[in-house]
Phosphoribosylglycinamide formyltransferase
Amino acid sequence: MKICVMISGSGTNLQSLIDASKEGFFRSKIELVASNKENAYGLERAKNEDIETYIIKSEEEFINKLQEKDIDLIVMAGYLKVIGTDLIEKYKGRIINIHPSLLPSYGGKGMYGLKVHEAVLRNNEKITGATVHHVTEDVDEGPVIISESIYIDYEKVKSPEDLQKEVLEIEHNILKKAIKHLEKL
């Protein structure tokens, strides 16, 4: 499969996918890294690996680029903007997203990154985790592909940033597993 990874920030999930690809964890190839932010550090990660980058200015142009590159799968890996219905329709069943909670809990519009971890800690949850799901028009409500949980050790986890680090390890692990799983379908 030819993959486009969509990012908005530092690209740690992207880096984990690049590393998994180099290790032969999955056969798919990352052909394109797209971002809505020109200064996203993840774009540098892509350039360091000679992966083409693209700044999303309009959905129509982006869809044309995806078709030009013959992209099979779109992986939203820290892309913090809700995507449009045209893209979802064109790539129905072929867009996945990583989310830093056990969906459906702590999902939906406005729930991303540290906001999720703040809410989890504020509610004194005992368990949290991450989920990879198919993208639909309803934010964070598409069918789950894989999720993994951890118990929150409040002796170690003192801040949302501490929790984010623990959940990020899960994200890195399950995102590559989801791609490997989708290759078999």
Q: What stands out?
A: The longest strand covers residues 127-134.
